[in-house]
Design the sequence.
């Protein structure tokens, strides 16, 4: 059970041994920990104390469909960070769905309106039209950050919550790992929700948002970590299909065919196209494969080369030097959701303690300051 708690906690051995120098002796039962030591150990690893007294480790599964593994592979054991993030989003979605229903909102017309037999190009065009993400609007957006912000605002206008965070709740010491999952979609007829791992690069977050939108249109909730290169093979059909829709939504193949300059240097043209469409070079590599510029073996080679050059960049991009607390909170929780919770609490329809929990804040002072600033976001 101690081994299980250590794995679940995800802490380095050095950290654990520094705080619990007798941990190896506890495991061999040479020394018995005190109750106070066990409480500290459980708290450090975010494990309920009572679980340490179970006869064997519990089997923890993702509460929604897990698309993170291939069909023939074993299910990937979820971290506590992933599980808690899903549970928190489910609670927030339940609250927001009740709020919208009480406010007279009807079912969202975009949830589950297509099937896997639907044409990928037609579905991508359907989503693009709903978002107002036509070529003219895209030309006015100059950066990946602005593109992501624009898309989140447009998706929010469709009553689809988009939450972007790189931490668990409001705990800045618990960073999410984009290698474990890139995002997930929670399907609800009134309040569908998309969560994006904020520790990923901005370009990757854009692709994840597009991918999860396809899940909403399909009405298939689940957690994903598929990359743009995953176009065939042993992946689940739903994931491959959602990847195809996401790629077409962001980089329409017809437009790319006219835009691609075959006489230019490949590296320069790859970077230029990535900037034109505001996607990562990894996504652009995949779209050039779709265009027939090269075969799948070459795609894998180029993709791996580009991925190797990007090692270390993913984590560094997400680090920040602080920033405005309230603006960051609204970005993580979604401005539509935050406004709804604040309004409901001030009207006496939601208990303040419940509002604090939904917003991952700790006290009334923070809440009322948020209420004063909410109109600015």
Sequence:
């Amino acid at each position: 059970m101690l081994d299980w708690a250590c794995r679940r906690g995800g802490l380095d051995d050095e950290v654990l041994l520094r705080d619990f120098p007798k941990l190896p002796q506890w495991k061999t039962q040479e020394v018995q920990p005190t109750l106070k030591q066990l409480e500290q150990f459980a708290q450090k690893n975010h494990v309920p104390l009572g679980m340490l007294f179970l006869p064997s480790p519990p089997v923890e599964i993702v509460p929604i469909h897990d698309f993170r593994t291939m069909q023939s592979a074993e299910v990937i054991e979820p971290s506590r960070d992933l599980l808690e993030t899903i549970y928190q989003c489910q609670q927030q979605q339940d609250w927001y769905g009740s709020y919208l229903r009480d406010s007279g909102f009807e079912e969202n017309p975009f949830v589950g309106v297509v099937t896997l037999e639907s044409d990928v190009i037609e579905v991508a065009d359907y989503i693009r039209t709903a978002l107002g993400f036509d070529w003219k609007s895209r030309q006015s957006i100059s950066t990946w950050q602005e593109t992501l912000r624009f898309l989140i605002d447009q998706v929010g206008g469709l009553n689809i919550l988009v939450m972007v965070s790189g931490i668990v709740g409001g705990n800045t010491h618990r960073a999410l790992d984009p290698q474990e999952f890139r995002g997930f979609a929670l399907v609800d007829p009134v309040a569908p929700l998309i969560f994006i791992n904020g520790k990923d690069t901005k370009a990757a977050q854009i692709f994840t948002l597009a991918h999860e939108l396809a899940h909403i249109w399909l009405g298939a909730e689940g957690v994903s970590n598929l990359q743009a290169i995953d176009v065939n093979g042993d992946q689940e059909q739903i994931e491959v299909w959602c990847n195809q829709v996401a790629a077409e939504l962001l980089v329409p193949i017809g437009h790319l065919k006219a835009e691609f300059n075959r006489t230019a240097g490949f590296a320069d043209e790859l970077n230029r196209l990535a900037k034109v469409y505001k996607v990562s070079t990894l996504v652009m590599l995949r779209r050039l494969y779709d265009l027939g510029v090269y075969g799948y073996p070459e795609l894998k080679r180029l993709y791996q080369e580009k991925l190797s050059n990007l090692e270390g960049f993913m984590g560094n991009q997400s680090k920040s030097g602080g920033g405005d607390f309230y603006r960051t909170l609204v970005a993580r929780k979604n401005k539509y959701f935050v406004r709804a919770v604040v309004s409901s609490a001030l009207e006496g329809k939601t208990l303040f303690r419940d509002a604090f929990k939904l917003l991952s804040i700790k006290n009334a002072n923070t809440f009322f300051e948020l209420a004063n600033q909410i109109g600015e976001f």
User: Anything to note?
Assistant: The chain has a mean pLDDT of 88. The beta strands are 161-165, 167-168, 171-175, 183-186, 193-197, 222-224.
